[in-house]
Amino acid sequence: MSDxxxxxxxxxxxxxxxxxxxxxIELDPVTGTYLGVPESAGRLPDxxxxxxxxxxxxxxxxxxxxxxxxxxxxxxxDVERRCARLLRERLAAQLAVHDAGETLRLMNNxxxxxxxxxxxxxxxxLETAEDWATVARRMRAVPAALEGYRAALxxxxxxxxxxxxxxxxxxxGQLTEWLGDGARPDWFTAFTADGPEELRGALDAxxxxxxxxxxxxxxxxxGEYAAAAAGTPDVAGRERYARWxxxxxxxxxxxxxxxxxxxxxxxxxxxxxxxEADKILPGSSPWEALKHLDTEGRAVEGVPEIxxxxxxxxxxAITALDGTHFELADRVKRVESMIAPxxxxxxxxxxxxxxxxxxxxxxxxxxxxxxxxxxxxxxxxWYHEGVPGHHLQLAQWVHVAERLSRFQTTAGMVSANAEGWxxxxxxLMDELGFLTDPxxxxxxLDCQMMRAVRVIIDIGMHLGLEIPADSGFHAGERWTPExxxxxxxxHSGRPADFIESELVRYLGMPGQAIGYKLGERAWxxxxxxxxxxxxxxxxxxxxxxxxxxxxxxxxxxxxxxLAAL
Length: 565
Known about the structure:
Layout lengths: L12 H15 L1 H7 L13 H23 L6 H22 L13 H7 L9 H12 L1 H17 L6 H14 L8 H5 L8 H30 L8 H12 L5 H26 L5 H11 L2 E3 L1 H19 L13 E5 L9 E3 L9 E5 L6 E3 L3 H8 L4 H10 L6 H4 L5 H17 L6 H26 L17 H10 L5 H13 L6 H20 L5 H9 L6 H9 L2
Parallel strand pairs: 2-4
Antiparallel strand pairs: 1-5, 3-4
Helix pairs in contact: 1-2, 1-3, 3-4, 4-11, 6-10, 7-10, 8-10, 12-13, 12-19, 14-15, 15-18, 15-19, 18-22, 19-20, 19-22, 20-21, 22-24
């Protein structure tokens, strides 16, 4: 347990949650960098079994102390109660994953230790020589971090707990991409190329050490670990899947009901897509219309140009929404469009601002080598990743962190809450008339369809469920990853490499992908319950701002809390 946490003090739940966060940051400097803690900048986490157990020990100690915090005078107030429920649920869910050995086989193409070790550098300040010296210090820590991760994977393999072969193959490919080739340098050397000349020797040496460590991990994965993982199923099975569903969604779901809901949304959206496609290319299917838009629809040429275009899109959305549908603080209005580093997964993503807003919220576009970017699906996607999606929610959380707790607004985030809001934000922009253009609306529906398909195939393949008779697709058969990829490909306008990357993601992060649609359902139900309670007095702007200021909640609590606003 971290020495920074004194559990002999009388701490109310919010104080205990923030004391836990401070202790966690000491053990996990990557989290510290996301939050903008300067003391974290030169370090990386200990991903070894001993390092993982230290975090678990901290979590157990905090959970043991939580009943005392709740029993203190004032511990049962609404703000304390809400924080205590989140803290208990989050730590219990994380410990369930740890105690089952999942952290000893944690590997995927988006959010596992190898991506954390690299991506954290993209969040560091780079203005001064001191900043670059800190970069060099952190790069020199890469070998130890990756060696600790390797030790955890080796320990998992010794217990018969390995990642699925698709995850191994994909991460090997990512590491190979980061190492460069004869025509281009490794990622770490390229990243440090803009550093000051007086630190050139130190930066080059540190980058070389980091790249060598990446190469050593890649070779070990390709040899010893891949052989150990060869017989591991790519799918989770019901027990593992249920554990991860709780982790990502903050609830224990009725999985068969959620699967049926995914199919109901699929059929609803499919009918809308056919109607919209006919406006673009009369008589065509949605997928023919989307393929037509790939070549004949509006597009932006050039990587710098698409970054600027996306920035303008977010700026325009803020101008249009602020004061009408939201009431935004000035520091929440700042968001930056970025290009994701090479070797990233195919999906765009968002990183929230630091706690002091010195680093703004940022959206990240993986280009996958493209230089031409059709905009039909980017508009809805940037409403999701940027404004009014992830940025407005997560930046607002940071803005109100001192009124709630820093834990509730940062490390306590429940994925399905955030992804549900972002998908709700896409739908809100459709409701407000921002997606009336047939190209943009078909792109929006395609994004919605992808989230419905995720519910179907994520639950279906991990549990091996039967495909319904009215699906028009391999009726009566049991889902497999191969069938899931085929079904996704038939119902998406996205290229094959994107679909492959997404499927690997779903297999490596069981239960995460369903949170978008199920989270959106909770947000919509909460809004409609609040509207019914208030009648004509319902104020959508007031409700949105109150909802965005709740901080994190699991799906167990989200609908109830939203309905009460």
